[in-house]
């Protein structure tokens, strides 16, 4: 990971200077924080949400140095994608990657959405109400996450305003196109995705519908067993979401909203690395 970071730093310098390289690669002043320290500082910030000034004291550098380091390394972590179990060299970055992997390996997917509380947009801005979640009664942003049967994170998308319905967020992510191109992939979903189940029968699997009032007792009991079985199959994606929410920055986001998508992907990558090797 250090090579892309070094290349990015050098590239930005040349763009700022407005000309070609004038000295050998690696020349010039050394960084106050080596790459490993930058990575550790970023992971501490993501996990515990420590202020940059506190991290500066821990590493013996100025706050601005930590701020710049976190911005650079967070972008690198977000670009890495999610690890694949038993495939060390493979990373999943897009929804198409996940569906292609699932069809090739015969993996059943579990999909769900989670909401993260964010700051309320200032008054007078357009689209202010889009962040008000009808379920949470808070200003939130919504992430869609896919996991496998063992709760290992395989993918998460760019976050969307919390007022958007879960199924709409999945459609905007391109799940309908993936269902058409990968007809053998099955995805276990919750009650909020009944529309996807109607449009993609046999692929989008939602809980069975409750029998009508007055149905035979045996049918009601069978429905309860089927619903419990579906919930047991789908619960692993809830475990994946719980792994993400252990990182303090995802319990309540207090920074700029446009940085949350990269932050979520930067957290999902290390979590997938850990669970893929479990």
From TrEMBL:
<keyword id="KW-0479">Metal-binding</keyword>
<dbReference type="InterPro" id="IPR027806">
    <property type="entry name" value="HARBI1_dom"/>
</dbReference>
<feature type="compositionally biased region" description="Basic residues">
    <location>
        <begin position="14"/>
        <end position="24"/>
    </location>
</feature>
<dbReference type="Pfam" id="PF13613">
    <property type="entry name" value="HTH_Tnp_4"/>
</dbReference>
<feature type="domain" description="Transposase Helix-turn-helix">
    <location>
        <begin position="32"/>
        <end position="82"/>
    </location>
</feature>
<protein>
    <submittedName>
        <fullName>Insertion element transposase</fullName>
    </submittedName>
</protein>
<dbReference type="GO" id="GO:0046872">
    <property type="term" value="F:metal ion binding"/>
</dbReference>
<dbReference type="InterPro" id="IPR027805">
    <property type="entry name" value="Transposase_HTH_dom"/>
</dbReference>
<feature type="domain" description="DDE Tnp4">
    <location>
        <begin position="111"/>
        <end position="253"/>
    </location>
</feature>
<dbReference type="Pfam" id="PF13359">
    <property type="entry name" value="DDE_Tnp_4"/>
</dbReference>
<feature type="region of interest" description="Disordered">
    <location>
        <begin position="1"/>
        <end position="24"/>
    </location>
</feature>
